[in-house]
# Entry
Amino acid sequence: MNQRVPDAGIYSAPMDHSYRQNGNGNGGGRFQQELEAVPLNSAESHPPIYAFVDDLFFLAKIQEVSRKLNVKVEFVKNDEGVLESIVNAEEKPALIIFDLNNTAAKPLSIIPKLKAKLKKQTSFLGFVSHLQGDLKMKAMEAGCDMVVPRSAFSQNLPQLLRRHAAPETGSET
# Structure
């Protein structure tokens, strides 16, 4: 008779519930504050944010967070017409997000083309598996301003969208 040993070979770590704390023991604190909508005056709009993402998990995550923040994120496939419209748009994008594993979009060939035309006014963010150090280096060489692990991208998405969607506040004289 073959007896099964419970949890044999399976690593189980204690769950970190610190995300539930907001200082007074009530749940939802920090994450809820991060998901407050980005304010706009009626005459303002957010600078465009584009995402070359086809992974359904990240697509849904970006859609959910952007909806809660009231930030429009446009999802893009690798289509030369769309690339031209991004470059020729009157308002340049604040952020372009790349899933560096999105083979349909060919990010390592698109990034240098867009970077050359959009210059410093647009931030390029890529995300990869934490095991893909070589892909991270190639993306940085291609022109990504920042490449983060998938987990860090997911965790910091509210702050990233908020930072790039907030209207720039210039000093008025």
In short: Residues 101 and 158 are 22 Å apart (CA to CA). Residues 150-165 form the longest helix (16 residues).
